[in-house]
């Protein structure tokens, strides 16, 4: 299940960055009201919890499907194996049915394995994307800080030039 999504720390960092961006985008001269911020934060947390529950439900469905297919395949194989042991007249029919049950079991477990592999790959990609987002956020904040310094220096220079001209 852990391979299905980001870690709680990564998700929390993402939510904090998303809330920070929302606050920056919606701020006014007076700032954002606390009630608005609470509503936005609540919505983001609820969305994160729903996403987690959805992933958990999909995981449970996959496991249940695997168990059901395994059980039905093994029962079918056992039943027809017993039929062959009792009377060899049904050997061809039993072989075909056992082959189909075995194939069903194989395909369900193969599907489960492929889903696990792809979810592991997707987790790796999500970690990379979150790292890139974090790096980009740091670079943007650094650029904002540098731009503010330059603007302050320009104001100081303009003020000095204004004093010189007078």
Automatic annotation (TrEMBL):
Q: Sorted alphabetically, which keywords does the UniProt record give?
A: Coiled coil, Membrane, Transmembrane, Transmembrane helix
Q: Which residue windows are transmembrane per the record? A: 63-83, 89-114
Which domain of life does the protein's organism represent?
Answer: Bacteria
Coiled-coil residue spans? 133-160
Task: Indicate what this protein is called per its UniProt record.
Answer: Uncharacterized protein
Species assigned in the record: Paramagnetospirillum caucaseum
């Amino acid at each position: 299940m852990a391979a299905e999504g980001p870690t709680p720390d990564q998700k929390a960092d993402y939510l904090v960055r998303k809330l920070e961006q929302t606050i920056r985008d919606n701020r006014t001269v007076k700032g954002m009201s606390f009630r608005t911020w609470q509503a936005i934060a609540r919505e983001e947390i609820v969305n994160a919890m729903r996403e987690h529950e959805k992933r958990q439900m999909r995981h449970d469905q996959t496991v249940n499907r695997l168990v059901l297919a395994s059980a039905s395949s093994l029962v079918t194989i056992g039943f027809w194996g017993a039929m062959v042991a009792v009377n060899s007249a049904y050997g061809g029919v039993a072989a075909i049915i056992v082959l189909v049950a075995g194939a069903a079991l194989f395909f369900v477990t193969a599907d489960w394995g492929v889903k696990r592999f792809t979810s592991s790959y997707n987790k790796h990609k999500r970690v990379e994307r979150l790292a890139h987002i974090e790096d980009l956020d740091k670079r943007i904040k650094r650029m904002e800080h540098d731009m503010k310094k330059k603007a302050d220096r320009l104001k100081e220079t303009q003020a000095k030039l204004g004093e010189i001209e007078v």
